[in-house]
């Protein structure tokens, strides 16, 4: 992609500090796009169709139905884990180091014990078009964001790391690929590669018994190979195999590319060719200029997680030399207007405002994107300067 001239935006680190303070003042609690089953009506929705209808109605309603339906604000470990990792990038500055430790310790306390020891879960039941998983089950996406945040912040001791490693292999790997939830037989590429990257990280960067580390590395390598074989001729990855999972969207594609790069780097695998093809498709089909598209080649549809992931990806593509250094700032300037903490006119009414106030779906991924963009945009030695 050619270099994009970015409109002037405030200093990225100032924005990151403002966003952190906004979310922290709310104790990282708020609405979530998938919290529709946590209210009284959720307990009555015993059929798949009813669950999905209720969840999607709450998620998509222009007006916030949560107070009417008795749905209370949530504090999720996934949000604090993602935010802990974002803060840890700037940990050379005391204020950011304290933030990373505080959020990392909170996230570590949510690590499961008992049958699924070492893993993390969502704090709400989820019904999707392909699966139902209750809040009692761990899932790979929550586990990855929480584990990475804790590892970045240094808040998992050796026992917790070993428990995580065993849990990942025992409950979220089926011998071929990493599964979204225990017992699932559905291949979801972003989750599979999240699992591969986490397994590779545990194998290569944490103190584990040699046999356990080897098992993690082998599982990670096989999982990467599974998803590499599923890359389409145009360079894209669908959400999963089969017609019901065949869509291509921006933030899941971002997860695939980031985690493929991370896993392959840790494992010493050469994935340059599929990575280049994937990035080319992503930049050509999931952006309209600097504005992210939600689905490939579709009209732009604004979503806080998709927008935040686009900023994160723009920082990564710049770091890897796929785009110019100004692309990330151009994407940020194109998307920042809707985030309540960053909007120049936050009092302006917006449809579905609650979605943009979500700690897990909005604030935490955007904080991750901002700190990544800051460190990418500054020479080593200046990247961890912080607001005082």
Blueprint (SSEs and pairs):
Blueprint: H1 12-25, E1 29-30, H2 40-44, H3 48-60, H4 66-69, E2 74-75, H5 77-88, H6 94-109, E3 126-127, E4 132-133, H7 140-153, H8 158-171, H9 189-205, H10 210-229, H11 250-267, H12 272-285, E5 287-288, E6 291-292, H13 304-319, H14 327-335, H15 353-356, H16 359-377
Helix pairs in contact: 1-16, 5-6, 5-7, 5-16, 6-7, 7-9, 9-10, 9-11, 10-11, 11-12, 11-13, 13-14, 13-16
What does this molecule look like?
Helix 6 (94-109) crosses helix 7 (140-153) and helix 11 (250-267) packs antiparallel against helix 12 (272-285). The longest helix is centred in the middle third of the chain and has 20 residues, at 210-229. The chain has helices spanning 12-25, 40-44, 48-60, 66-69, 77-88, 94-109, 140-153, 158-171, 189-205, 210-229, 250-267, 272-285, 304-319, 327-335, 353-356, 359-377; strands spanning 29-30, 74-75, 126-127, 132-133, 287-288, 291-292. The chain is globular and about 55 Å long. It is mainly α and 388 residues long.
Please summarize what this structure is.
With 388 residues, the chain is mostly helical.
Order of helices and strands: HEHHHEHHEEHHHHHHEEHHHH
> Could you estimate the helical fraction of the residues in percent?
40-55%
Structural class computed from helices and strand pairing: mainly alpha
Q: If you compute it from the alpha carbons, what radius of gyration comes out, rounded to the nearest whole angstrom?
A: 20 Å
Main sheet: strand order: 1-2
User: What's the shape?
Assistant: globular
| Overall pLDDT confidence | 92
- State the end-to-end distance: 36 Å
Uncertain runs with pLDDT below 50, 5 residues or more? 381-388
Q: Number of DSSP strands?
A: 6
Let me know the largest β-sheet.
2 strands, antiparallel
Strand content: under 5%
Q: What is the number of helices?
A: 16
């Amino acid at each position: 992609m050619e270099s994009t001239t970015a409109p002037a935006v405030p200093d990225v680190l100032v924005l990151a500090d403002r966003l952190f303070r906004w979310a922290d003042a709310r104790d990282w609690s708020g609405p979530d796009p998938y919290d529709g089953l946590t209210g009284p009506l959720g307990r009555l929705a015993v059929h798949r169709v009813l669950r999905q209808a209720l969840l999607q109605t709450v998620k998509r309603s222009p007006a916030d139905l949560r107070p009417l339906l008795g749905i209370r604000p949530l504090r999720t470990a996934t949000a604090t884990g993602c935010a802990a990792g974002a803060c840890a990038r700037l940990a050379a500055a005391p204020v950011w180091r304290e933030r990373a430790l505080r959020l990392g310790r909170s996230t570590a306390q949510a690590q499961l014990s008992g049958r699924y020891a070492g893993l993390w879960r969502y704090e709400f039941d989820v019904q999707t078009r392909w699966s139902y998983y209750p809040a009692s089950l761990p899932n790979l996406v929550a586990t990855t964001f929480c584990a990475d945040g804790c590892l970045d912040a240094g808040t998992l001791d050796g026992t917790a790391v070993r428990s995580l490693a065993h849990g990942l292999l025992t409950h979220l790997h089926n011998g071929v690929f990493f599964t979204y939830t225990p017992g699932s037989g559905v291949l979801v590429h972003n989750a599979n590669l999240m699992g591969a990257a986490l397994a590779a990280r545990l194998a290569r960067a944490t103190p584990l018994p040699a046999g356990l580390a080897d098992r993690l590395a082998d599982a990670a390598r096989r999982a990467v190979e599974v998803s590499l074989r599923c890359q389409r001729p145009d360079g894209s990855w669908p959400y999963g195999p089969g017609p019901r999972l065949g869509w291509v969207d921006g933030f899941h594609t971002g997860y695939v590319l980031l985690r493929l790069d991370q896993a392959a780097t840790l494992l010493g695998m050469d994935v340059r060719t599929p990575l280049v093809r994937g990035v080319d498709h992503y930049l050509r089909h999931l952006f309209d200029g600097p504005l992210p598209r939600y689905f490939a080649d579709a009209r732009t549809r604004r979503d806080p997680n998709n927008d935040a992931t686009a900023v994160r990806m723009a920082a990564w593509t710049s770091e890897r030399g796929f785009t110019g250094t100004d692309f990330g700032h151009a994407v940020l300037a194109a998307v920042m207007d809707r985030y309540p903490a960053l909007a120049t006119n936050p009092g302006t009414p917006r449809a579905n405002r609650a979605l943009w106030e979500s700690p897990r779906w909005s604030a935490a991924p955007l904080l991750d994107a901002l700190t990544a963009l800051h460190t990418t945009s500054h020479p080593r030695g200046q990247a961890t300067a912080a607001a005082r």
